[in-house]
Specification:
It is a single chain. The protein is α/β, with parallel strands linked by helices. It contains 13 helices and 13 strands. Strands 1-9-8-7-4-2-3 form a seven-stranded mixed beta sheet, with helices on both faces. Helix 10 runs antiparallel to helix 13 and helix 12 packs antiparallel against helix 13.
Length: 396
C-alpha cells in the first residue's frame, strides 16, 4: 500500500492534514480546566452536527461498537425485548450484541440491499399492545451494502402505533456526512465514531442520548462500568473523565466539528451526494449494478458494487492493494465475494474520487472483466462538470 494514495474504504477515512496536526499535541493534565476547553466545545460541536438542542453527548475512548454497547447497557435490563431488522452485516452485529447481553430480539429478516421495513415495524409495534418492546434498533446507513434507510419513516411507525419504545440509531457511517436530524426524527440514542465522517482515526465512540433515554438509565439493570454514562457525566462536570481520556483525539474532534460547521452542514451533505452521484454514474457506465435495490436507498457515503456471478469481487480489492497501492472495501457477510465497495465519505474531492474510479477500472480490466478503460471516469467527469462545486467549501 502507499501512504500517498487516498483510501476508498468506508472508514477509516482520509485524514486532513489540519486534523492530524490537531491530534499531535503535547501532554496536558486531563483533570485540569485546560482539558475542559477541549472537551466541552467538542461535545457542543457534535450536538450541532446531530442537529439537536437536547441531546446529552458522551464521547468514549472506543469505536462505534462501543457506542452500541453504551446504548444498550445504559438503558435496558436482561430479558428486555428489542425490535430490529437484519439487512446487512452491521445490523446483524448489533443484533448479536443484544443477544449476548441476554436481550430478547424480535428480528425482521430483510433482503441485503433493501432499507429498513418501516411498515413492518408499524405492524409489529401496533400488535405489541402490552408494550413489551423497549427499543427499536435502526441502522441509518448499512455500510456493508451501501443502503440508506429512512429514519423519519421509522419514527412515524412508532408514532402511528402509539408505542413508547426508544429509538436507537446507528449513524456510524452517516453522521457528519449525510443529513441526520436527532430532534426532528425523535431519536433517543444516536451512535457515531470518529473514523468516518469526522475524518479522524478510530478511537472515539460518539453517542447522543435524548432526555427520554437518560430517564431510562435510572432503571436499567444491565452491568456496565467503562461505558456508564452517569460516571461520564460526573466527570464532565469536573472537566474530566472517570478514567484517562484520548486527549489528542478529542482535540481533533473539536477541530473536525469546527471544520464541518464552517463548511456548512448543507454543503457537507451536498458534497457527499455529489461525489456519490459521480461514482454511481461510473458504475452505470461499467454496466454493473449496486447492491442497493433502489435509488431511494442509495447511500451517499459508500457504494457496494455487484460483479458478475462467476467473478470473485474480492479479487478487485486484493489486486488494487497489491498492484496500485489503493484500498477499496471487500464485501461482508452475505455479500462477501459478490460486491466490492467504494467508500466516498469524509475528506474527499472530485479529483480524488476520479483517481479511485480510474483504479477500479484498471483492476477490473486487468482481471478480465470487459470494462472499457475510461468509461466510468468519463461518466463521472460528465456529472462533476455538469454539477460544479465552485460554491462549496472543501472539507480538506
Amino acid at each position: 500500500m502507499s501512504f500517498q494514495n487516498p483510501v476508498f474504504i468506508p472508514g477509516p477515512t482520509n485524514i486532513p492534514e489540519s486534523l492530524r496536526k490537531a491530534c499531535d499535541m503535547p501532554t496536558i493534565d486531563h483533570r485540569s480546566p485546560l482539558f475542559g476547553q477541549i472537551l466541552h466545545p467538542a461535545r457542543e460541536g457534535v450536538r450541532k452536527i446531530l442537529k439537536s438542542d437536547a441531546a446529552e453527548v458522551f464521547i468514549f475512548p472506543s469505536t462505534g461498537t462501543g457506542g452500541w454497547e453504551t446504548a444498550l447497557t445504559n438503558t435496558l435490563s436482561a430479558g428486555d425485548k428489542v425490535l430490529a431488522a437484519r439487512n446487512g452485516m452491521f445490523s446483524h452485529r448489533w443484533i448479536d450484541m443484544c443477544q449476548r447481553h441476554g436481550l430478547e430480539v424480535q428480528i425482521v429478516e430483510t433482503p441485503w440491499g433493501d432499507g429498513l421495513p418501516a411498515d413492518r415495524y408499524e405492524e409489529i409495534l401496533t400488535a405489541d399492545t402490552a408494550h413489551e418492546i423497549k427499543v427499536v434498533l435502526a441502522t441509518h446507513n448499512e455500510t456493508a451494502t451501501g443502503v440508506k434507510s429512512d429514519i423519519a419513516a421509522v419514527r412515524r411507525a412508532l408514532d402511528a402505533a402509539g408505542h413508547p419504545a426508544l429509538l436507537f440509531v446507528d449513524g456510524v457511517s452517516s453522521i457528519a456526512s449525510m443529513d441526520f436530524r436527532f430532534d426532528e426524527w425523535g431519536v433517543d440514542v444516536a451512535v457515531a465514531g470518529s473514523q468516518k465522517g469526522f475524518m479522524l482515526t478510530a478511537g472515539l465512540a460518539i453517542v447522543g442520548f435524548s432526555p427520554k433515554a437518560m430517564e431510562a438509565t435510572k432503571t436499567a439493570g444491565l452491568p456496565r462500568t467503562f461505558f456508564d454514562v452517569h460516571d461520564m457525566a460526573k466527570g464532565y462536570a469536573n472537566n474530566a473523565y472517570p478514567y484517562t481520556p484520548a486527549v489528542g483525539l478529542l482535540n481533533g474532534l473539536n477541530i473536525s466539528c469546527q471544520m464541518l460547521l464552517s463548511e456548512g452542514l448543507d454543503n457537507v451533505f451536498a458534497r457527499h451526494h455529489r461525489i456519490a452521484e459521480g461514482v454511481r454514474a461510473a458504475v452505470s457506465a461499467w454496466g454493473l449494478e449496486l447492491c442497493a435495490s433502489d435509488p431511494s436507498v442509495y447511500s451517499d457515503t459508500v457504494s457496494a458494487i455487484r460483479t458478475p456471478e462467476s467473478f470473485n469481487a474480492t479479487d478487485i480489492v486484493t489486486h488494487a492493494a497489491n498492484t496500485y497501492g489503493v484500498a477499496f472495501g471487500v464485501g461482508l457477510g452475505e455479500v462477501a465475494g459478490k460486491v466490492f465497495r467504494i467508500g466516498h465519505l469524509g475528506s474527499l474531492t472530485d479529483v480524488m474520487t476520479l483517481s479511485g474510479i480510474a483504479t477500479a477500472e484498471m483492476c477490473m480490466a486487468d482481471l478480465g472483466l470487459s470494462i472499457p478503460l475510461g468509461s466510468g471516469v468519463a461518466a463521472a467527469q460528465d456529472y462533476y462538470r455538469g454539477h460544479p462545486a465552485a460554491a462549496l467549501k472543501s472539507a480538506a
